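Section 4.2 – Deliverable D4.2 (structural model, holo form)

The reporting period included a commitment to supply a predicted holo structure for the target in complex with oxaloacetate ion. Inputs used:
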Amino acid sequence: MTKPLRVAVTGAAGQIGYATLFRLASGEIFGAQQPVILHLIELPQAQGALDGIHMELDDCAFPTLAGVEKFSSDNLELAFKDVDWVLCIGSIPRGKGMERSDLIRINGPIFTNTGKAINAAASRDVKVLVVGNPCNTNCLIAMSHAPDIPRANWFAMTRLDQNRAASQLAIKAQRPVAAVQNVAIWGNHSATQYPDFMNAKIDGQPASQVITDHDWLKSTFISTVQQRGAAVIAARGASSAASAANAALDTVKSLVNPTPAGTCISAAVLSDGSYGVEEGIISGFPLSSDGKNWKIIQGFQVDEFSRSKIDATINELKAERDTVKDLLP
Ligand SMILES: NC(=O)C1=CN([C@@H]2O[C@H](COP(=O)(O)OP(=O)(O)OC[C@H]3O[C@@H](n4cnc5c(N)ncnc54)[C@H](O)[C@@H]3O)[C@@H](O)[C@H]2O)C=CC1
Ligand SMILES: O=C([O-])CC(=O)C(=O)O
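Output (C-alpha cells):
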C-alpha cells in the first residue's frame, strides 16, 4: 500500500481553501493511486466550519482520501507534523482600493510562526506554496524562519498570473488557450509583475509574430494581467477564489510532473541571481521541473523593454523586504 501524502491547508474554511480541498482529496493532483491525508488548519473561531467541511469530504467518498485531521492555528507544530506539502492560504484578503502590499503588516506576522512550525514539525522534504498575500514576501518571511528546510522547497504563487496571461493572449490571437505556451511571470505577484509576452509562444510561434498589435502587447496586455485581481474584486465584491485555488493546484501538479520541453511553469522562488535578479528575494521566474527537482530556465530573451519591467518589479520586492525587516531573523 502506498504511504499516504500528508497535505496541510491553512485557511481551509476560507474561499480558496474550500475550492481547493475537494480536488486535493479526489486523486486529481497526486494521482489515483496516491492516498492523501488532509490537515485542515483554521483559526479557533472557524473550527465549526471545518467540521462541516469534514462532513462534506466524507460525503464525497473519495477512494484516495485516507484521512482528514483538523487543527487550530494555535497549535501549528501539531498541525504541520510530518506534512509533505503545505498550502499557506490562511490570511486576510484585500478589499476594493487596496494593493496587496497594504496587507503586509497584517498578514506578514502570520508567516513567522508558520515558518517556525514547519521547521520544527514538517517532513524534512516538505514543499511549501504560499498563496496568502503579499505572497512573495510572506514566503520570504516563512522561509527565513525555517533554516532546516531546503530553500528549493519554497514557492509563492504566480501561476494565477501565468494562467491569466495565457488566456489573454489566446483571446487576442483567437486561438484556444492550449495553443499558448511558455508564458513567464517575472517578479512580484502584484501590480508591478511582468507577464512576459516576448518569450511566449502561440502554436509554437513567437506570440509577438502571431499578435501583430505590439502596442496592445506592451500596454493593454500587461496592465490587464497586472490588474486582473483588482478587476475581479471590483466585479465580484470578493477576491478571486476558484481561479486562485485552481492555480494553486496547477502549481503543485506542475512541480510533481515533468514540464514538457519548450514550455515553462511559473512560480516565485528564491533568486539565485539569475537574470540579474538580486539574490535572496522571492521572485517569479520561468521554471521547469523533472517531477522531483525544478530549475530556473536559462536563456529567456530579455531585451531593454523587459529589463526595465523586471527591474521595476524587483525594486518593489526589495522595498517590501525592507518593510518587514523586523519579521526576518
Ligand atoms: N497568490 C495569489 O495569486 C492569490 C492570493 N490570494 C490571497 O489568498 C488569501 C486567502 O484568500 P481567501 O481564501 O479568498 O480569503 P478568505 O477570507 O475567504 O479565507 C481566509 C481564511 O483564512 C483563515 N485564516 C486567517 N488567518 C489565519 C491563520 N493565521 N491561520 C489559519 N487560518 C487563518 C480565515 O479564518 C479564513 O477562513 C488572501 O491573502 C488573498 O489575498 C487570493 C487570490 C490569489
Ligand atoms: O487581487 C487579489 O487581492 C487577490 C489576488 O492575489 C489575485 O486575484 O491575484
